[in-house]
Amino acid sequence: MSPLVITLLIVVGIVILIVIGYVNHMVENSKLEKARLKADLSDRIRRCADLSETLPGQMVSPALKLLLTRLQLQLGERLLQVDKNDNALKTRLGQLRPLVGQGESIPVNNPPQKIASEAKAKEIRFQLESLHGQITRAAQDGLLPANEAKSWVKEIRDMLVQLHVEFFTNLGLQALQENQPRQARLAFERGVQYLQKQPDPAHYQNQLQQLKAQLARANAMVLENAQPSADEPSELTEGLKSLEDEDTWKKKNIYD
């Protein structure tokens, strides 16, 4: 065998090894990408399902329930393209399709939740943040038209305002029931201040008037009682301030 033939065989062998290595690399990348996509879609489906089931009933309209169900269906159909043998997913999609087909007649069974503690208010605020993230991502992926996503972002802003109004109102009423009018006055004052700081306070005129009426009631009770001490209740003050200070995600995203 001539040296030329031997050289050609060696070159061919090297080329074959390179091709095999490249193919293996591509296969591994494909597997990793498939696993990443599957994990991402599964996580988004889970988050939408959790929001659909756990958001307070007073914040879940039929339109929102339909949106979250629709997103679960769309994401699930994408996931089925990645894993065509997932029988549990096929069953779940079979349950979601008729629900989406009902439109805004879809049943809403979320029970109302009383928002009367800082922990509960923060929990719901985090849920609204998650909802904002899911809607933004859905718009980026083409699952939601941009104008529909923008409309829902505005809706989340209203839901966040509703959260604060309920929180401040319930704290104030609870303080009145416990014969603590000064603490009630503080809660109602914070509620009024929060609404007045909104970019469109006129939109929340009814809520503002209700809080002002409660504030006047609490203030009258304070005047009827003994002279208030100089120290305001620091725990309530810090709790209310903490909830307001942690709204940075709303200020950065909802008003963009």
Task: Write a concise keyword list for the protein shown above.
256 residues, 9 helices, 2 domains, 77% helix, 0% strand, mainly alpha
Structure description:
This protein has nine helices and no strands. The chain has helices spanning 3-54, 62-82, 87-101, 118-140, 146-177, 181-196, 205-224, 234-245, 248-253. The protein is mainly alpha-helical and 256 residues long. It folds into two domains: 1-111; 114-256, no CATH class. The longest helix has 52 residues, at 3-54. 77% of the residues lie in helices and 0% in strands. α6 runs parallel beside α8.
Range of strand content: under 5%
Q: How many individual domains?
A: 2
Radius of gyration: 28 Å
Q: How far from one another are the termini?
A: 74 Å
Q: Report the count of strand segments.
A: 0
Helix content: over 70%
| Mass-distribution shape | elongated
- Uncertain parts: none
Structural class: mainly alpha
Question: Treating each run of at least 4 consecutive H or I residues as one helix, how many helices?
Answer: 9
How would you sum up the major sheet? none
List the helices and strands and how they pair.
Blueprint: H1 3-54, H2 62-82, H3 87-101, H4 118-140, H5 146-177, H6 181-196, H7 205-224, H8 234-245, H9 248-253
